[in-house]
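The records we work with from here on pair a chain with its fold. The integers have meaning only within a learned vocabulary of local backbone shapes. A complete example follows; check for yourself that the lines match position by position.

:::
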Amino acid sequence: MLNNKRASLELSIRAIVIVVLAMTLLGLGLGFIKSQFSQITSVGTEVQQQVREQITGQLRTSGEKISFPREVQLSRGERKTLTVGVQNTGSETIWFGLSVVMDTENSDHVGGISEVYDPRYPSDRCSFSLSPADASAYGVNIKAPKTAGTDMLIVKVLQSAVTPDGGCADSEEGTYASKTVFITVG
């Protein structure tokens, strides 16, 4: 009887040791994974910042109002974030919104680009502002259709009127700048 109690006590102690070791290893593993994800995130953020700086630098040297790639290659169903650069070339602050529209009349296949535009950047003309000679970059999400072909996107910067106090008025001034982009889905 004494041997049974001793054996069950040893078994209980071993079980507790195994559970403690397992929890320790699990904690170490989760810590390692968390540190890897934070490193990957910081690298991704660093790359995005470099792309933004490159685009705004190109805008400043070229004097253009908008920067966006002329052609984009996507695989079927692929999602990609593209960067739109906008520069204020005027002498006053501008208020604007972004509009990304697919020209379906010129599309050579049905289906088109779905989920064209990132909802974090609404096309409201008072969404963003740029001071004179300032430039900034904004991300636009594009998801390719499941059919191959070429679509045309029109990226527009929609400007609004500026109030006397420097704010945004609710009027439609017009298109500040636009760019046509060809999306090839293969």
